[in-house]
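fyi for ur records
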Amino acid sequence: MRVRCWLRTLHQIKTPIAAAQLLLQADGASDRPELSVELLKIEQYVDMMLGYLRLDSDSTDYVLRETDLDELIRQALRKFSWLFILKKISLDFRETGRRVVTDEKWLRFVVEQVLSNALKYTPAGGRIRIYGDGQTLVICDNGIGIREEDLPRIFEKGFTGYNGRQEKKSTGMGLYLCRRVMARLNHGITAVSRTGEGTLICLNLSRTAPMVE
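which gave:
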């Protein structure tokens, strides 16, 4: 009952966020891109909380079907377009040409979380690359990277690591939720990173990926 109450409340919060975004578009969002970005951040936090509650809810529904991976990626990229522009971050998106069996809504949630992190920790003028490697979707950046001692723990609940403590931008929930979602979808997620060089996140979209939970 309590979870359903929180879910309803968070859905209600999304309504004024969507209304504000529509008003900005009607008023010319290009004149106030910073406001669009701040609304996006609020929406991301709400989506994160919704994801957390839904994963622990008995009513979580997964609809597994063939999905156009490139279109899913494009939808996520459109959502973050203003952040790319404001930070002058270049994008190298090589279409995969793949269709995968997955839950479109939940996989897009993961892609958005990974993109959000990449944009957050990549300095202005940096680059983000997205490409396919067999049955794996790779999202990598040339940002600040993750310390070697932190890397084994980045998928733990609440873990922020050195970067999160320094930047004060991390909740320690994004990658934790990504790991849980990917496990539920019978996919996999791994990370490779070097301090000062960037981070590479691999999403194994094979339906034969080992279950984590």
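The chain has seven helices and seven strands. thats all i got for now
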